[in-house]
Amino acid sequence: MAKRAIDEVSLRINGADYHVRDFCKKNGENGETILLVHGMPDTGAMWNSLAAALVAKGHRVIVPDMLGYGNTSKPSDPKRYAGEKIIPDMLEMISKLGLPKCHVVGHDWGGYVAWVLVINAPDQFKSHVAISMSHPLVFSKNLNLQSLRDNWYMYLNTQDDVVDLYTKDDCAFYREFLIPTHPEPDEVCARLKDPVAMNAMRNWDRGNPLASLYLAARTPGALAPYYAKVAVPTMGVWSADDTYLLEEHMKQSGEHCVNFEYRRLAKGSHWCMLDNPKGTNAAVTEWVEKHK
């Protein structure tokens, strides 16, 4: 049997250094290729269990630390985190790694990135898994009071003094109010107690302000590319204990896809890949097997 290896590389992309782990088979054929895209406030390590499950099936798995996290660059300028900057980064990453047509799995802000990738580069992807994060039009347009309230922290992330607030007293405020259901708060805060890292975390919300997203959704033509149905087969996964994003929004995402399947996990927080790895791994590995 060919030996499995993990290649860790740093890719210079548009002025930033992206740290990427490539779980590949040396001296042998790989199966499918799957790109895993994390969100706030994590690193690529959040995918360790899923990556192992996919590798066990004989697949190649690509796991970047997204901009601002882990061993990837942490620019201080929030404009560098705007979607129109991140998507070219990801396409360049795919090109530099020479990836074949592949599958993409995204969560949280990484879920947004994955949606935009399959909308803009459908020929690159065999299938798509959206964990927690709904289609961008649904998120920006299908608003209700609950969704507005649930996004309160995205507003707070844009405020002055928030880095000092979040890092004070071993991230006490951040632990209590921003990530109260995160399964690994100590790991998160060990990284984000560094003000540079905490500022990078919040730059995703500064670079993609909610008011601008909501305004675009109400401006004719502003989000025109998003109205075409997603051609890449998509599975939406939502877990029963997610207190950040809405189940109804994930279900409504199917209206924007040609081929959509909804999978509800009976347990698991917003970070279901960490506190319900068995259910998450099964859902994703089964989906990949169906869309080889």
Strand arrangement, major sheet: 1-2-4-3-5-6-7-8
Work out the radius of gyration: 18 Å
Unreliably modeled segments = none
> Which structural class is indicated by helix and strand composition?
alpha/beta
Shape: globular
Helix content: 40-55%
SSE arrangement, N to C: EEEHEHEHEHHHHHHHEHEHH
The end-to-end span amounts to: 22 Å
Main sheet record: 8 strands, mixed
Q: State the total count of DSSP E strands.
A: 8
Number of helices: 13
Mean pLDDT: 95
The portion of residues forming beta strands comes to: 15-25%
Write a short abstract of this structure:
With 292 residues, the protein is of the alpha/beta class. The chain is built from 13 helices and 8 strands. Strands 1-2-4-3-5-6-7-8 form an 8-stranded mixed sheet.
What topology emerges from the helices and strands here?
Elements: E1 4-13, E2 16-25, E3 33-37, H1 48-56, E4 60-64, H2 83-97, E5 102-107, H3 109-120, E6 125-131, H4 136-141, H5 145-150, H6 152-156, H7 162-178, H8 185-192, H9 195-207, H10 210-217, E7 234-241, H11 247-252, E8 260-269, H12 272-275, H13 277-290
Parallel strand pairs: 3-4, 3-5, 5-6, 6-7, 7-8
Antiparallel strand pairs: 1-2, 2-4
Detailed description of the structure:
- By secondary structure, this protein is of the alpha/beta class.
- Helices cover 42% and strands 21% of the residues.
- The chain has 13 helices and eight strands.
- It has helices spanning 48-56, 83-97, 109-120, 136-141, 145-150, 152-156, 162-178, 185-192, 195-207, 210-217, 247-252, 272-275, 277-290; strands at residues 4-13, 16-25, 33-37, 60-64, 102-107, 125-131, 234-241, 260-269.
- The chain has an eight-stranded mixed beta sheet with strand order 1-2-4-3-5-6-7-8.
- Strand 1 and strand 2 (16-25) form a beta hairpin.
- Helix 1 packs across helix 13 and helix 7 crosses helix 9 (195-207).
- The longest helix is centred in the middle third of the chain and has 17 residues, at 162-178.
